[in-house]
């Protein structure tokens, strides 16, 4: 550790460690402060690599393979004996992936000359040319003030707690998203509060492994942020799979009794009780600011407790930036990554920019749910004369060959200019499919551009082509009422 750096990054999650690596590539002297301890060891990677994106996807993949082996292979002519799941082995695999990736991040920091300071970082004064950051060592809690020309705040977020369902991950009955990744056996009955990304993904994992899953959602609409056609289809498919999703239902109390949890909920003025073996609380996340800012830091916060920044993630103080879950916008790892690199390149004098109109959202259920850009409803609210096109995967040859004929792809466009405004998908690999829409939108493509492209046959991507053709009544593998222009 040195006394002075060109850049100090507080937070070693996806946004923070990528910012530190990019700064190292540009020749800056860099320190990355991260205090996380995972399974008894200091760990980089933030929530995403340790207890979020990566471990949850590992469990989703394992559970999907189990369910497919148990229920879906017979139609392919494949017969098996008794199929069992070793939950402990599944968790062990997940831990191995986490360890490999977090260890890889540590090597990347070292390889790019970044000092990883294990402990807490507090911006105590960001107003002068030399910013002051107090570093509290994880090992012995000793405090050192280091200076930096620039600081990036990247402390991330933590799950929101609700008084009616107090989380105790150590007890393991009422847990948050972190605790839900460490169940040692499949619960017979599982309750989930929140039908958002985390609730649907974790609910899907344990439902596939045999749990009876009830998902409580206080909002009257299911997946309100998604396009209505996609959310409607998603609701039907997930309920068909066995998820009992109850919208407009508010949990008013959750109490542990005799090793189980009794959940009280209310809908339409009527109250009811149900008992579960486990309850997952996943109602959202909040910016994590514990020990991040000293009393004299000078940083301006919003009414919601976020760090106030401009479009380039610059705070009200010169040389101080904030990124990721600490600032406005969706709490997504890939958003934080791009913001981190943008901030570093701005510090370096470059004119980097993040296009917030093309940030992709993905829910890793099966089939996946993903979108980029405007929904049909949002486009109309913004005054566009909208045209849309959709195509069902049931008419896609590759999807049927893979037993993945569920779902659809939808495009949203400006009818006047033909410009693509959004792409929405619920299908196998939807998270990858919508990247085609993101790239097209980055290049201000029209629906006609997509129509004129040659898509390989047979691929699921052909459904993108058909959806684009459908916007003008030209889809070949679907009967449409709209006549060709």
Automatic annotation (TrEMBL):
InterPro entries assigned: Class-I_Pyr_Nuc-Dis_Oxidored (IPR050151), FAD/NAD-bd_sf (IPR036188), FAD/NAD-binding_dom (IPR023753), FAD/NAD-linked_Rdtase_dimer_sf (IPR016156), Lipoamide_DH (IPR006258), Pyr_nuc-diS_OxRdtase (IPR001100), Pyr_nucl-diS_OxRdtase_dimer (IPR004099), Pyr_OxRdtase_I_AS (IPR012999)
FAD/NAD(P)-binding domain sequence ranges: 5-340
SUPFAM superfamilies listed in its UniProt record: FAD/NAD(P)-binding domain, FAD/NAD-linked reductases, dimerisation (C-terminal) domain
Family listed: Belongs to the class-I pyridine nucleotide-disulfide oxidoreductase family.
The keyword Disulfide bond appears for this protein: yes
Keyword NAD applies: yes
Cofactor info, note text: Binds 1 FAD per subunit.
Pfam families attached to this UniProt entry: Pyr_redox_2 (PF07992), Pyr_redox_dim (PF02852)
Domain Pyridine nucleotide-disulphide oxidoreductase dimerisation: 361-468
The protein's name: Dihydrolipoyl dehydrogenase
A single BP term in Gene Ontology: 2-oxoglutarate metabolic process
């Amino acid at each position: 550790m040195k006394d002075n750096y060109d850049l100090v990054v507080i937070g070693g999650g996806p946004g923070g460690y990528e910012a530190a690596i990019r700064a190292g590539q540009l020749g800056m002297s860099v320190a990355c402060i991260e205090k996380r301890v995972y399974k008894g060891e200091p760990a980089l990677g933030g929530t995403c690599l340790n207890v979020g994106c990566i471990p949850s996807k590992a469990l989703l993949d394992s559970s999907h393979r189990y369910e497919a082996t148990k229920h879906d292979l017979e139609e392919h002519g494949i017969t098996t004996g008794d199929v069992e799941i070793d939950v402990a082995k599944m968790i062990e695999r997940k831990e191995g992936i986490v360890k490999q990736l977090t260890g890889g991040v540590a090597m990347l920091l070292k390889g790019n000359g970044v000092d990883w300071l294990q402990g807490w970082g507090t911006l105590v004064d960001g107003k002068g040319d030399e910013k002051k950051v107090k570093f509290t060592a994880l090992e012995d809690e000793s405090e050192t003030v280091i200076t930096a020309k620039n600081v990036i705040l990247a402390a991330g977020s933590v799950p929101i707690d609700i008084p009616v369902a107090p989380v105790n991950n150590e007890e393991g009955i009422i847990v948050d998203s972190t605790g839900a990744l460490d169940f040692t056996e499949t619960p017979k009955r599982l309750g989930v509060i929140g039908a958002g990304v985390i609730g649907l993904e974790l609910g899907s994992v344990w439902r596939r492994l045999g749990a009876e899953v009830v998902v409580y959602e206080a909002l009257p609409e299911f997946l309100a942020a998604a396009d209505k056609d996609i959310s409607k289809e998603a609701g039907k498919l997930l309920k068909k799979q066995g998820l009992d999703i109850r919208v407009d239902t508010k949990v008013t109390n959750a109490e542990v009794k005799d090793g189980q949890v009794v959940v009280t909920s209310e809908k339409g003025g009527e109250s009811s009780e149900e008992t579960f073996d486990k309850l997952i609380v996943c109602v959202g996340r909040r910016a994590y600011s514990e020990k991040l800012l000293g009393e004299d830091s000078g940083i301006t916060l919003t009414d919601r407790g976020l760090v106030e920044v401009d479009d380039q993630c610059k705070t009200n103080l010169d040389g101080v930036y904030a990124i990721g879950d600490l600032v406005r916008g969706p709490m997504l790892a890939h958003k934080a990554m791009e913001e981190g690199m943008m901030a570093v390149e701005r510090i370096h004098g470059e004119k980097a920019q993040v296009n917030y109109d093309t940030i992709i959202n993905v829910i890793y259920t099966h089939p996946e749910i993903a979108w980029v850009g405007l929904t049909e409803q949002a486009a109309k609210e913004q005054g566009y004369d909208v045209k849309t096109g959709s195509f069902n995967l049931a008419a896609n040859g590759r999807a049927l060959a893979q037993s993945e004929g569920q779902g659809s792809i939808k495009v949203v466009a400006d009818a006047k200019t033909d410009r693509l405004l959004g792409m929405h998908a619920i299908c196998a690999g939807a998270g990858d499919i919508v990247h085609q829409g993101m790239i097209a939108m980055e290049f201000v493509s029209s629906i006609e551009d997509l129509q004129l492209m040659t898509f390989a046959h047979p691929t699921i991507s052909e459904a993108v082509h058909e959806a684009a053709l459908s916007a003008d009544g030209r889809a070949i593998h679907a009967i449409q009422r709209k006549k060709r222009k």
